[in-house]
Amino acid sequence: MTQPVSQDLLSQLETPEDAAALSWVEKQNKRTTDRFATGERFQQMRGAILQSLDDKTNIPWGNHYRNEVYNFWQDDEHPRGIWRRTTESSYFTAAPEWETVLDVDRLNEEEGANWSYHGADLLHPDYSRALIFLSSGGDACEIREFDLVNKTFIPEGFFLPESKSSVSWLDENTLLLALDAGDDTLTTSGYPRRVYRWTRGTSPQDAPLIYAGEATDMAVSAWHDDTPGFERDVVHCSKDFYHGQTWLLTGQNTLTLIAIPEDASCGFFKDWLLVTLNSDWTIAETTWPAGALLAIDLADFQRGERNFISLFTPNSRTTLQGYSSTRDYLLLNLSQDAVEKVEVVKIDGGQRHCIKTLELPDFTNVSAGGIDDESNRYRLVSHGFLQPHSLSYGDLDDDTLSLVKQDPACFDAGEFSVTQHFALSLDGTRVPYFQVAAKALALSGDNPTLLYGYGGFEVSLTPHYLDSKGVTWLQKGGVYVVANIRGGGEYGPAWHQAALKQHRHRAWEDFTAVASDLAARKVTCDAKLAAQGGSNGGLLIGNMLTDYPELFGALVCEVPLLDMLNYPRWLAGASWIAEYGDPDIAEEREWLQRYSPFDKVSADVDYPPTLFTTGTQDDRVSPAHARRMVARMQQQGHENVWLYEETDAGHGSAPENSQTAAHQAMIEEFLWQMLTGK
User: Fold this and answer.
1) Per-residue pLDDT for 252 more than 80?
2) Bridge-partner residues for 530, per DSSP?
3) Is 468 noted as a catalytic residue in this protein?
């Protein structure tokens, strides 16, 4: 039997490192692992997942810096990883000759630390120095300057203690700095609100101020665009998740506003300003639709001209997911019915010209990105639910494209098929979903089925290789389903905005429509259907628990938001008010309470078995959400509710493959036990 939890402990659970809270978490973890992290099936699944993660034939994804390619790699020999490099010609071979630049495991041994590598910013154009980002678990990083020639940290180099500061090279001796020094240097969302010009050898606190945002803004940032011949410095203030302003920085402190709508975003391609619209924009006699990508000469725009050309216009099936560039071309990454493809576009004579479209059949994603600004080379990545990642390199000058690397297959895909279906939501909206199942699937209504969803922040769920899940789920007879519900970005801004704030219920209705459609098609039934989601998707799962418990046989709720009346008080919570609403405003508090699982859970309802997961080091979504939800449900007498908190993890996965494998296998074991009773 679980033990009652005091009100005092409920309050203590809000503090991630509180001693009493950690003691409670330790007991919860033991209860969960004793049940779901033991036994032969768990060990087999853990082994399969770890083998996939540690496979030395996996693609070593790289970043190109002139003739060198850098890669961060983790396996059984390097649990925290090595940052390494090779020549480009060697990278294209089957067995590149790697040179280790930074060994994170060795660094941790030398310093008695617990660092994880969170990336690097290399100094253009000779790439002899880098700023290294090291984290002890969350998003906050310690920033250190590194000598890439001698492969050592620079003792008197640029340094910032672990924080949410951000930096960008201006030149060898100068950084653009968004400083997190605590207190009034931060917004209410916990991000920097001021940008400085920081010179080598000086204190960051003494750096000259460039721009100061308001405490109520979400964040400010600045960066240097080093495109040869088109160098520029940019300052951006995010008012909230979907509104902001961007300035060009000239001289020491001169800021010139780029006067686009505050809910639009901008980028640059040589002398062109690129504008992505989030709502319709009427200029003179022309209305440009939400989701469009527009281009105009930047100098002309700053002089007041508005003679845009359209690089992409969305339709009912196709939306822009992002773009990249080579020297002369733009690579538009698009999504058509939630499957990715690429259009290669050139601006010539003030007009848009579509050079080619890159797409593959069988629900296979294709995405592309330029390698550098000095050539027309690009890399193309393809993958699907049943297709491992492949990496090809192309050159638009001679129209060549060659396969360079391929991830190993984790399972025999020939037994399975991918199909796309559409469910009818409560208001009549057609909601697409993908189903991955055995070709010989019997429509008997009793197949164990896992339904995954997200539905927020304009994030699109497109096909992704199932890796070891092919072994741990599909080959064991499971069906895997991904729901493309509103709130996501599968059909552009309107699809996202349809489930914003007081309309959040539409995401829940879309998800339950998919669940009901699976039952109507005899794929599964309520007792054999599980649902899973994380972060914003955890909020989705929380509402499935409280409002639709009869539809599911098990739920997995990962790093979730659950207490919607308190979420802005914790960590980065205030940054999501534009997505959810503000509980300090009476009208908005009313709708937030309607979809706050923590406030809706009741002792009088029978809930499906639910596993909540979180991370002690999560400095984005507080572990308080999952902790307090579990504590409240256990107080109410619900026995089949479980918590696992990874003590080393932040908002993402655990820092080592072995931890990730054990975590994922534990979730799979929970699902199999709850859906099959064994």
Assistant:
1) no
2) 450, 554
3) no
Q: What is the pLDDT of residue 8?
A: 84
Q: Is residue 619 part of a domain?
A: yes
Q: Is residue 366 a part of any domain in this protein? A: no
Peptide bond into 125 cis (omega under 30): yes
| Per-residue tokens: 216 | 């109520």
Backbone angles phi, psi at 412, to 5 degrees: -80, 105
Q: Is 4's pLDDT higher than 60?
A: no
Closest CA to 327 of 231, 396, 393: 396
Cα dist. 46→43, 145, 530, 657, 660 in Å? 5, 38, 20, 10, 9
Instruction: State the catalytic residue, choosing from 168, 238, 324, 535.
Output: 535
Q: Nearest 5°: phi and psi at 104?
A: -70, -35
How far from each other are the two terminal CA atoms of the chain, in whole angstroms?
Answer: 21
**Cα 226–Cα 229–Cα 233 angle in degrees, nearest 5:** 40
Domain count, the chain: 2
- Find the catalytic residue in 383, 496, 625, 651: 651
- Looking up tokens 């409560």 gives 426
Is 324 among the residues known to form the active site?
A: no
| DSSP output for 303-366 | TT----EEEE---SSEEEEEEEE-SS-EEEEEEETTEEEEEEEEEETTEEEEEEEE--STT-EE
- Residue 658: give the domain boundaries: 7-51+418-676
Is residue 44 domain-shared with residue 74, that is, in the same domain?
no
Alpha helices in 562-606 (DSSP H): 577-580, 586-594, 597-600
Sheet holding 430-438: strands in order across? 416-424, 430-438, 479-483, 449-452, 529-534, 554-558, 610-615, 641-646
CA atoms within 13 A on the CB side of 643: 30
Quick one: pLDDT band at residue 1, thresholds 50, 70, 90? very low
CATH of the domain at 580: 3.40.50.1820
Residue 571 Ramachandran class (φ > 0 left, ψ -120 to 50 alpha, else beta): left
Does 157 lie in the same domain as 38? no
| pTM attached to this predicted model | 0.97
